[in-house]
Amino acid sequence: MESLAVPVLILLAVVAGVTLAYRAARKRRTADDAARPQPSVSAKELARAAADRLSEDQHRRLYALIAQDQGLAAIKLYHEVTGDGVRASRDAVGALTAHPQPCRSQAPQQVAEQDEDQPTRFPYRYRAIASKGDVTREVSSNMLNDEIYGRIRTLARNGETEAAANALTRHSDISITQAREFIALLDD
């Protein structure tokens, strides 16, 4: 019986040591979490504030990068434009991605004097999605709406793919190659 007493005492000492270490680590983690500053604004408010700091052109370029799934480039652009830190820029772009914001232009647009070659910029972003099989493409632009996208789809379905691609390029920030890929998914 005495031969078992020493190993049992050692086992009890190890269990007690592990328990104390676990409790100390948990207390330290809780204290660190309490000391870490909690975000004071919601993601929606952060997105609204971030969008307000951008000009119309910067807003358009940033959302073009987001639509093309180029998050790092969008963070870099926001960082360069605003001068915010990288973490703040990452948080702002994340909020803008999760909660898309319309561009709040500083000067009202003059719709009456616009040229027909110049597309109208709407105060909201329109998302057009085309897919065929496993391939999906998305175009996000504040120069598109249901009417314009409907005309582009009609052109594509009537076999006028080049005219549809040119119209899509004119009303968004994508290249002609990307527009052709998008249009190829539309014609059934």
UniProtKB/TrEMBL annotation:
Domain of life assignment? Bacteria
Native organism is Pseudarthrobacter enclensis
- The protein, known as: 50S ribosomal protein L7/L12
